[in-house]
């Protein structure tokens, strides 16, 4: 059973992990117990959208079922402008009593856009307690190393990067069969050079005493992984992923063949907001938003779904499939849904048709507020 970490415990535990990260290039923390984790509760949560595919210059403050969205006051004016790109990066600020935490989830496609938006929005990097990456797609990891190049000295000396598992380091490719091109790789060597310890969270994990991750997400029901990237398992010149230590990889994967990407180690980041319930951030949701919600409920023991946020990867889906997913999503009775990034217009259309009172739209530079 995972215990709730106070800040002193959190930082003390990090120090030991950093030593392992520098020596071995990465470290893996798994929770031996299959019992539900002890999920912390926060009084309030704020999410600032650092990078998204759109920016609504005319965003007006709005509240839907207790969740408010408002434009972030920009720290710099003309000629600076919020940039958009295919990718996602979120700035997570939570409060429990007098105890604040700041986490950064995903890093967009390129460091230039990420850093520009961070500067314009005026976020304070020195407040960061931990870093999280949802999965190994370049539109979520592309800005990470540039971010660390610029801001590493401002982060805690023992800062950790929480990743879903070894699969996050695999080499991705994109394109039609026979015409595949490189889609990037998360480089553990570069992370080690920056003295950033990587925690592989195949099991649910409490982060900084405020958030928790789902661990590896179980798959069942109507959802499917839409074709997107291909993945190559194996390590070449220190770059890539080591599949030999895991039993759930196939023979083809272990032989280093290029296979369809099933996002084995994509995980979601979640908060339990006092008197509201779960806030589930799917980032991309390749393994299915329904599966992700069920996993968050199972590992936390909390049924109430307050909000579903992030990329839902329903952009490639047909309208009838999306309607089916949204119809089942309605049974979870979410207070609000905030689609971003890869969610797609078909998802927005389905929600507007099936449960329009639950839809809240945001964009880059928006700020979402949950709780008191």
TrEMBL record:
Pfam families referenced in this protein's UniProt entry, alphabetically: Lactamase_B (PF00753)
Record key words, sorted: Transferase
Occurrences of domain Metallo-beta-lactamase (ranges): 119-154
EC number: 2.5.1.105
InterPro entries found in the cross-reference section: DHPS-like_MBL-fold, Metallo-B-lactamas, Metallo-beta-lactamase_dom, RibonucZ/Hydroxyglut_hydro, TAT_signal
Enzyme class: transferase
PROSITE patterns referenced in this protein's UniProt entry, alphabetically: TAT (PS51318)
Transmembrane segments: none
MF terms in GO: 7,8-dihydropterin-6-yl-methyl-4-(beta-D-ribofuranosyl)aminobenzene 5'-phosphate synthase
Cell membrane listed as a keyword: no
Top-rank lineage group of the source organism: Bacteria
UniProt cross-references to Gene3D superfamilies, sorted A to Z: Ribonuclease Z/Hydroxyacylglutathione hydrolase-like (3.60.15.10)
Annotated protein name in UniProt: 7, 8-dihydropterin-6-yl-methyl-4-(Beta-D-ribofuranosyl)aminobenzene 5'-phosphate synthase
Native organism: Bradyrhizobium japonicum
